[in-house]
Design goal:
InterPro entries: CheY-like_superfamily (IPR011006), Sig_transdc_resp-reg_receiver (IPR001789), WalR-like (IPR039420)
GO molecular function, one term: phosphorelay response regulator activity
Largest sheet: 6 strands, parallel
Keywords: DNA-binding, Phosphoprotein, Transcription, Transcription regulation, Two-component regulatory system
Organism: Fimbriimonas ginsengisoli Gsoil 348
Number of helices: 8
CATH superfamily of the largest domain: Response regulator
Pfam families: Response_reg
CATH architecture of the largest domain: 3-Layer(aba) Sandwich
């Protein structure tokens, strides 16, 4: 039996593209143009296997729609669609129950793979991620159809670099092992940027930074890094935002 999917998005062209792409893949698809219409169609969630929800909509923002969906059905599957992804948004969305994210603009193939991955996930009642957590659990999310988990981490005795190996999964594709390299000089840049000789969480902080960098790459590019290697060369704007967020949380605890 084909999965039933509800698409809630205020942009007509996006709704149409999603409906056609997923209908072509064999899914049963209905659409709604805003949050109230989407919630009216969703009811108690019994007839829906998945919701695709736009984050930015007039009137009733996606995050409010999301909270109401999980209030009605704590075991709901939901993909949050947004072009405005930030650390704070991701944390807020995870706290509200989301575990799958799709970044605009996206191709029909990325859409289908994201849907396939979301439908394959085991559902569980949503739970709150403590705001005081220094290390965000990106590894439990699905980003553009990708999910990943840490396989191992080592420190190069000669260079001082940290090397993290991640197993990256995507529905319908072979598993990839991606190496993320965090050079020692970037760690020193972090200490200078945060004006702290010791980072909160010790080694787990640096692992989380590697997780964030891989998550951001998958978010921005919807593909694994070239040659399955991602080297963190400097403090990008996104990493600076992540550091600001982490250090603020640490200072408040």
């Amino acid at each position: 039996m084909s999965a039933s999917i509800l698409v809630i998005d205020d942009e007509t062209n996006i709704r149409t593209m999603i409906r056609l792409a997923l209908a072509h893949a064999g899914y049963n698809v209905e659409t709604a143009s805003d949050g109230p219409e989407g919630l009216a169609k969703y009811e108690n969630g019994a007839k829906w296997d998945l919701v695709l929800l736009d984050q930015r909509m007039p009137g009733m923002p996606g995050i409010e729609v999301q909270r109401e969906i999980f209030r009605r059905n704590p075991h709901a599957r939901l993909i949050l669609i947004t072009a405005f992804g930030t650390i704070d948004l991701a944390l807020e969305a995870i706290q509200a129950g989301a575990s799958d994210f799709l970044r605009k603009p996206f191709t029909a193939e990325t859409l289908r793979l994201a849907v396939q991955s979301a439908l394959a996930r085991q559902t569980e009642a949503s739970h709150t991620v403590p705001v005081g957590m220094v290390c965000r659990e990106f590894t439990r999310t699905t980003i553009n159809g990708f999910s990943f988990e840490l396989e191992s981490q080592t420190a190069d005795d000669h260079s001082g670099d940290m090397i993290c190996l991640f197993d990256v999964h995507r529905a319908g594709a072979p598993q990839k092992r991606v190496k993320v390299v965090l050079p020692a000089y970037v760690m020193e840049l972090v200490k200078a940027y945060t004006d702290a000789e010791e980072v909160p969480g010790g080694e787990r902080f640096w692992i989380a930074m590697c997780e964030e960098s891989l998550a951001n790459h998958l978010w921005q590019n919807a593909e694994v890094p070239a040659d399955d290697v991602l080297r963190i060369e400097d403090l990008s704007t996104s990493l600076q935002r992540w550091l600001d967020s982490v250090m603020t949380v640490s200072d408040n605890n």
